[in-house]
Specification:
This protein is an alpha/beta fold. It is built from nine helices and six strands.
Amino acid sequence: MKPKAVIFDLDGVITDTAHLHFLAWQRVASEIGIEIDEQINEQLKGISRMDSLARILCVGGVEQHVDQQERIRLAARKNALYVASLQQLKPDSVLPGIAELLEELHRNNVPVGLASVSLNAPRILEALGLQEQFDFCADASQIQHSKPHPEIFLAACAGLGVCAVHCIGIEDAQAGIEAINASGMLSVGIGKQLEHADLLLPSTGELSWPLLQTFWLTQHSAHVV
């Protein structure tokens, strides 16, 4: 018995682009007189670009003074800075254990999906040399609700033709763990500060197919009862 699919988040699970996001947001925020730090950046992980901007404007106390047209401009500015920084990504930017796990999943005929709110996901996978390893990629263009709403994970499952309760989701952000749990999937959290993950690992280097298979066998029956 094995999961019908494994669905991965992108940032912080496949590769670490969180710092690139932070630098882009920090520059945009500074341009409008708002200072943000790494603690604020933690609150932006796993949520959409416009939701991230809204939180930054709230931190600066100016959310009531920035209209929708200006928000769209600021979000586009941030994305341009971020996309330019993606040139730094190479195949060796893949986080430890991930390339090996993807190969193991394919050898065992387990479909692999991506659930990322980043519209740049295909570009990132191409830069990492991983585009052929994913059977379906769900991104922000296919959903209306950002994490912690489960829609992005449900979209990935639908794209793979599988039911969420038969899948494992892997995330590094609290909003993502909540989204996975709400979808009915079993959740694997990467990091130390996450709550309510069915399995919590300190890093991607701990991930492997034997570990996921054992986790599935021990947890799935109790999870679906």
